[in-house]
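hey can u check if this looks right to u? its 335 residues, i copy pasted from the old doc so theres a chance i mangled smth
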Amino acid sequence: MQVLIVNQTEVPRLLPMRACMEAMAEALRSVSRGESVLPLRQVIMLPDQAGAFGSMPAYLGSPPAIGVKSITVFPGNHGTELDSHQGAVLLFETKRGSLLAVMDASSITAVRTAAVSGVATRLLARADAGDLALLGTGVQALTHLEAMSHARPLRRVRAWSRRPEHVRAFAQRAERSLGLKVEAAPSAREAVRGADLVCTVTSSREPVLEGEWLSPGTHVNAVGASLATARELDTAAVVRASLFVDRRESALNEAGDFLIPRREGAIDDGHIRAELGELLLGSRPGRQSDSEITVFKSLGLAVEDVASARLIYDNAVEAGAGTRVELGGARDAGA
């Protein structure tokens, strides 16, 4: 049986942001319609807490596909030659269970996470939003900048990192690859001041965004924290905002940005307004006024990886891209 291998450099060409956003919207609809199957992610923390290994399997209902992402997360890799997220996505077909492809997970994660934030921004940001603040300048920052530029016309972009040299390097990459000018902010507070779009894409386990900094009408994509014990938003930011999630079950078990304020007694489960899929299906309302602050808490779902892999596979087959290898799966006729 031949299996398609798609490497890190091939993924962005086969998974363009605008097409990925449409695929993510359909995947989120599938989740909210109950057509997809995805358990909570399994995560093993290393004893020294330097990193984690995660496994994320899913069945995607539309278009039908089975897959799993196995990935390591080592935040200390930021600024080195290695990505903080490394691994592979395996894609299977649903009729006979054959393995179709093995793909680089780092690049898929970078694109699809930002694409989901792009979908959230289209749904929840004010129509005139265009002043963007990026807190964090790692892998997710560049793809989020691209996704935000598809979701809204950007007038201004500011970025902040604890290390100023990272902001300067990021600004150069952004102008070179996207043609967008990025201003370096001296602090997270200054980056957010007056912004109406905010993306938190850090590896911090403690808040980097305070609620008192947010202007009325701001939309926030809270992306970087994906553990029950970690958060990027302080309690005031979550309390002030209408909260939207990719999936309720995941948020109730894994989202420190939600779970820590709930544990403090500041909010309850009813603070979650809706899933993005419910907004896309029209079964729940989104933003109610121009002054409302909205937060999308992104955790990342396995169906997003599977939907991305399916799109990559289809595009690769059409373009003749990737490398095919004989792996196995056929029954030995002599057995």
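The longest strand covers residues 52-60.
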